[in-house]
Amino acid sequence: MTESIFSEAFTKEDKKGNMVADSVLTQRIIEQFEEHTNDNSKGPLFSYITSIQNHMPYTVRKYGDLPIPEIQISKTISQKAKDFVSVYMEGIRDANQMIKDLTDYFEAQDKPVVVVFFGDHLPNLGDNYLSYKELGLNVGDETSVENIVNTYSTPFVIWTNEKAAQMINLDEKKVELDLPEDNRINANYLGGMILELLGYSGQDPFFDYINELRKEVPIIYKENYKTVDEGYVKELEEYEQIKVSNFKNWEYYKMRFEKVE
Prior knowledge:
7 strands, mainly alpha, two-stranded antiparallel sheet, 9 helices
């Protein structure tokens, strides 16, 4: 059974500012897990959750009248830039607490649990990358493919509880993934990579396809790529173009029609 829950399912009291609070979302995730695992007739649970609390805007009024601690920075930057970063860091504190609360909870469970945390883009900290530029960070520089990729890169974390760790040798499995040395891959590869990591290769031809594509073209961003053979490039070889085009078409039809024969 598939169930979708959107922000309309939450009350005003569930929000921090105008966004659903990460603390509330944490509790909803735990409740969903307990409801599912208490029913022995149900199989594995897959949940895809998008936390929205720390999304833009990062203006001083993001959280209404809630006072936001001003961060201390050794480098001198403008007050406007400091406000953006301070508001963003308030959300980071809540996100960190969310991760701690979830991993503490799942570590205590006797069911195997795998949690994947990732972000889909860097925060918008002012027009024209204001805060990044004042802090001297290499974000927003589009003079090379690598710099463009840096601007849109975020970290990901894969965590398992002890029960899952007893079933999966993650160190051994990671080697089999044949990841790039910098572990930098497109977010669209994460789902298939997790299935491969957990030993579910061969279950779905689409995920098998993108797992193989990941090993040849680990980064695809508009007309910017990174290939295993050539590094950062603007254009792919013809055979690579065909493989990426096949992936994009397959992805479109899966999203459009759900099932493709």
